[in-house]
Amino acid sequence: MNKNIYILLFLLGVLCTPNKFYAQEELNKKPDDDLGNVEDAFQESFYEGMKQKGIENFDRAVESFLKCIELDASVPVLYFELGKSHFKLKNFTEAETALKKAVEKDPDNEWFLDELYGFYVSQNDNDNALKTVKQLIEYHPDYKEDLASLYVRMKRYDEALKILDELDTKKGVSISRDRIRNRVYKLTGRKKDQIKNLKQRVDDNPEKESNYLALIYRYSENNQKEKAFQTAKELLKIKPKSELVHLALYKFYLDDNNAEKAISSMKTVVKSTKIKPDTKLKVLADFISFVGKHPQYEADLMETTALVESVNNSKTLIELGQYYLAKQNKAKALENFEAAYKIEPNNFGVLKNVLLLYIDLKKFDLANKKSSKALENYPSQPLLYLINGVSFNELNAPQKAIDTLEIGLDYIIDDVKMESDFYLQLSKAYTLLNNTNKAKTFSDKAKQLQNSN
Questions:
Q1: Distance (Å, rounded) from C-alpha 219 to C-alpha 231?
Q2: Angle between helix 314-326 and 330-343 (nearest 10)
Q3: pLDDT tens string for the chain (453 positions)?
Q4: In 3D, which of 360, 359, 355, 357 has the Cα closest to residue 372?
Q5: CA spacing 20 to 30 A to 381: which of 135, 336, 413, 425?
Q6: Nearest Cα residue to 149 out of 176, 122, 113, 189
Q7: How far is Cα 422 from Cα 415, in angstroms, rounded to an integer?
Q8: Is 152 exposed, middle or buried (0-12, 13-18, 19+ CB in 10 A)?
């Protein structure tokens, strides 16, 4: 049997697992010509090479493929597999030689060319990569995008843009090509060309929302806010039901001191089913900041917050907590900080806010349990000992308060205010124990620190 057929059947079997045993009967059939022994040795070595390559034993794979080549040096795929195995061993010179040999023996094989092209790219051999990818384009025009990327690597930016323009004209724009294009504009500082290209897209396809959004983004990035704002308003005229445009509009309205329209846009974003939750939460965070400066719009914020079915972004929850804290709405602040803590159980700042709010809201049992557990993870944090001590005092367990407060004192470093609070709580604990002398001693220490500060 012809060796090329053996190899083709094997490769098809590997690619189509679990059907790889379909040709087993034919492959195992005993050859009836004089070359039977050679055929058997060839097959055995080839299969062994593929097996060793499959288990990433590339040294053994190389040995097997070389043995095959000794038996028949005319089979192109042997050099292909040999080159890939050498590459895995970082034998780069040998890998290149083998892959070039495979291409030389089968110059129309796209797989061989693609592997050689990938090798040259990995070695930053741009000249040879360029030569190879141009060969690949003859088989598949899709490789033109690779050619554009390669021109960027070689700093041949005009040639890269020319190819991208050709592809966009023929196939329409694509995200992958836009990434290449934007990289060229960034590397060359051609912001005007970038804007010109985007404006042309709007002119060519005025009904396509994404063209406007891309132009708005680039105008904003280039600090051309007025043009960005104008483009957003144009999009709204053409697509009055557009939701994505409000991601830009609300910021422009805020800058323009148009609170009513800004709030309307923010509500549109939050209600939208087209906008990702993370993006909505960023808008909500801006809304919180805005209402912090303009409290007359708090009712709108409450309404908008209610529209977010499940806020699961810790940053936004923390900002909401801080907002309610500033408004002295400690219950709502605690609600948001607790939600944030569930998402980030290792965030000590959030834990601290939760515990302090427990104390403020007289939830002493919760403060005691959570601070006791927190001390297992943060045994050197004096604030936790103080909160723990306060909760024990409020729960009428003064001796336990004394025990935890005395331990915590050892962890205070250059914090007069905290040290004074510790002494006041110790004074309270000894008062509960009717030990007036000790109570006075610690009360005096606290006053002394307060006066010295």
A1: 9
A2: 160
A3: 344 433 443 443 333 333 323 233 333 444 444 444 667 888 899 999 999 999 999 999 999 999 999 999 999 999 999 999 999 999 999 999 999 999 999 998 999 999 999 999 999 999 999 999 999 998 888 899 999 999 999 999 999 999 999 999 888 888 899 999 999 999 999 999 999 999 999 998 888 999 999 999 999 988 899 999 999 999 999 999 999 999 999 999 988 888 889 989 988 888 888 888 778 777 877 887 888 788 888 888 877 776 664 556 677 788 778 878 877 889 989 998 998 999 999 999 999 999 999 999 999 999 999 999 999 999 999 999 999 999 999 999 999 999 999 999 999 988 999 999 999 999 999 999 999 999 999 999 989 888 876
A4: 355
A5: 336
A6: 176
A7: 11
A8: buried
Q: Which residue has the tokens 């934007």?
A: 182
Number of Cβ within a 10 Å radius of residue 379:
11
Indicate the Cα dihedral angle 237, 241, 246, 248, nearest 10°. Answer: -40
Which pTM does this prediction carry?
Answer: 0.57
Gap between the Cα atoms of 21 and 434, Å rounded: 89
Burial class (CB in 10 A: 0-12, 13-18, 19+), 217: middle
